[in-house]
Amino acid sequence: MTLEEKIGQMNQISSYGNIEDMGVLIKRGEIGSILNEVDPVRVNALQRVAVEESRLGIPLLIARDVIHGFKTIFPIPLGQAASFNPGIAEEGARISAIEASAAGIRWTFAPMIDIARDPRWGRVAEGCGEDPYLTSVMGVATVRGYQGESLSDPTSIAACPKHFVGYGAAEGGRDYNSTFIPERQLRNVYLPPFEAAAKAGAATYMTSFNDNDGVPSTGNKFILQDVLRGEWGFDGFVVTDWASATEMIAHGFVADAKEAALKSVNAGVDMEMVSYSFVNYLPELIKEGKVKESAINEAVRNILRIKFRLGLFDHPYVRETTEDIFYAEAHLEAAKRAAVESAILLKNEGILPLKESVCTVAVVGPLADAPHEQLGTWIFDGDKNYTQTPLAAIRQLYGDRVEVIYEPGLSYSRDKSTEGISRAVAAAARADVVLAFVGEEAILSGEAHSLADLHLQGAQSQLIEAVAATGKPVVTVVMAGRPLTIGRQVELSAAVLYAFHPGTMGGPALADLIFGKEVPSGKTPITFPKMVGQIPVYYAHHNTGRPASRTETLIDDIPVEAGQTSLGNTSFYLDAGFDPLYPFGYGLSYTTFRYDNIRLSDSELKKNDILTVECDITNTGEYEGTEVVQLYVQDKVGSVTRPVKELKRFTRVNLKPGETRTVVFDLPVEELAFWNIDMVRTVEPGDFGLWVATHSQSGDEFSFKVMD
Ligand code: GLC
User: Fold this and answer.
1) Mean pLDDT of 340-363
2) What distance in angstroms lies between residue 111's CA and the mean position of ligand 1's atoms?
3) Do 180 and 224 meet the contact criterion of CB atoms below 8 Å apart?
4) Ligand 1 mean position to 243 CA, how many Å?
5) pLDDT value at 463 more than 80
6) What are 148-207's pLDDT values in tens digits?
7) Contact call for residues 176 and 448 (beta carbons, < 8 A)
8) On the chain, which terminus has fewer CB atoms closer than 10 Å, C or N?
9) What angle do CA 303, 308, 312 make, to 5 degrees?
10) Average pLDDT score over residue span 629-653
11) Which domains are assigned to the chain?
């Protein structure tokens, strides 16, 4: 390979209109990968130039963001995380890969596994929430789904865990903002999901936009070389995020595009997305001895290794027919199942599932029949015409059982006009139950879509107030890309279902949940704050030296002229207390579950032991249902302060009314390891707390010791 041909493999462009123009670049070996080309005929035309007209015939790697579906759209990843079901993530990714590869795509920029504890950040929608263990499990399942049994399978697409690393800690939840994560926190919270994905064989990684402690990830040798390759043995390739190489100029980390290329390659980046500094400056930098050709050779090897593993040299072309693959019945069924399991029942005063006595329902709200919004963020190829909305599904599936009166009240989620609310109120007055579908348009979450206020947009709050004032029971269903501060709407509602953005089949899923054919099982994958001012608020917090007692005097109860120290000095908010609206891991069912006989295999363990924890779970209600049983641990005393709880295991258990099942968790003591005061990952001996619980704020505490 000539130097130019090597550097060409390190260059990715975004497809633009003209095949011939791109063909010129491809023919001279200047392009290794193209993103955003999804027409199989065009893909084959571009590939033919690479394979049959360029000197070396190296095939292109075609890429696309397939974040939660290609044509068949699944719930947003935050919603899928609420299922606490890795099977859902794997199946969704597998189906996405089958559909995307049919269009010629063999690489996607997913899973997004940034730990996010700030719902102001719009990209919280794309990840798995606040917890490293849940994110690791869901991320690994997604990698498996995309990459299948073998990368060489023509339906497999290379995964790309992103954004490496720490992007979700953007200060203030404002996208692209700086992060200040010390190495210990990086290693204990933000890196574990990426390590798990590397161990699972993820083929590529993407650098993140943020500068952490002053170093942009795209120029960060420590994470790209020392950690990713040195510690984890990663042998795939690293791509920048969109122009994140030359954006280091704006960061003030490099002076110009030439230095951007220098710092990116010397930090360990293998491929540059769209900003072209590699092609423009690497030859010069090599001549000047500032970049070694050996670094170029290493990068090209990494890229070609993945192209070989994908089988592109043997099978570079894609079948040009897709009609029997997109929106296949089995795909839609899987998307519906995912939407059912992603929904979280936050409140239910017995109104759900709707009883036979309910004869008339008023369907209101801007999200009741919003096929585009329901799909959520990061949808390029999903067709809203395939979306089945709640209104359509309720009419189709239950229209013979209930009369449906539809009055949206608002035209879209940001609609400030209240002139339609009176019609919604009139519909509510005629109905037995109001089904209010509110939340966010898809555009209000996702990249560059941070919000400083998490209340329902537009006049949605007024809509809920007005229909609730009729005295009819209101079932509020929220479709959103993030937790919203819906405390007032919860107060006004007889039931609340949080569906996130549930995707193509969200309508039938929600209809079946509302009418009882399905039973909710989702759990919050991220803490729901009462107020934006509580953020960051997450369950795995440190205790501080003055933990909240939860008996503090709140602002409305403070006596006038209260003495300076009369309220006690603990860590809480006068106007919000300490607790969130809903903690991590929270979700109700139509039935109830009892936890009995929690038992530990040992009370004293050594570092290479396995702790076995058993618990009898009984369905004590009248509906068959699924409980997500969670195992939390607390390291009571460490060489550094430790979180008050950490999720270490979870499992879904389906039980018929009256049925009891023993859930068994095996927890190797080595999984209690953390990066300690000496920056060594180790299990420190001492006392541990343990909970087997229905959410992160529940359950009785048990204890065990790790012996030296
Ligand atoms: C975007 C996103 C990244 C995406 C890439 C390609 O800016 O940050 O997640 O994969 O560009 O679309």
Assistant:
1) 98
2) 12
3) no
4) 9
5) yes
6) 999 999 999 999 999 999 999 999 999 999 999 999 999 999 999 999 999 999 999 999
7) yes
8) C
9) 105
10) 98
11) 64-304 (3.20.20.300), 337-514 (3.40.50.1700), 593-706 (2.60.40.10)
241 counts as catalytic: yes
Active-site position among 118, 211, 241, 415: 241
- Name which of 149, 301, 314, 145 is nearest 238 in CA terms: 301
Phi, psi angle pair for 37, to nearest 5° = -115, 115
Ligand 1 site, residue 65, Cβ cutoff 6 A: yes
pLDDT band, very low/low/confident/very high, at 322 (cuts 50, 70, 90): confident
- Token pair belonging to 269: 């980046």
pLDDT range class, residue 320, cuts 50, 70, 90: confident
Supply the Cα-derived Rg of the chain in whole angstroms. 26
Whole-number pLDDT of residue 566: 84
163 alpha carbon – ligand 1 mean position (Å): 9
Residue 511: strand, helix, or coil: helix
597-615 per-position pLDDT tens digit: 999 999 999 999 999 999 9
Q: How far is the CA of 704 from the centre of ligand 1 (A)?
A: 45
**Helix runs in 369-431, H state only:** 390-398, 421-430
Query: Taking Cα atoms as reference points, which of 113, 107, 106 lies closest to residue 77?
Result: 113
Q: Which of 124, 447, 449 to mutate to test the pocket of ligand 1 (most atoms within 8 A of CB)?
A: 447
Q: Which residue minimizes the CA distance to atom 6 of ligand 1?
A: 242
* Calpha distance 507→393 (Å, rounded): 5
Q: What is the pLDDT of residue 201?
A: 98
**Tokens 């199942």 — which residue?**
337
**Is residue 495 within 8 Å of 453, Cβ to Cβ?**
no
The span from the CA of 131 to the CA of 114, in Å, is 10
Question: Locate tokens 């009055």: which residue?
Answer: 407
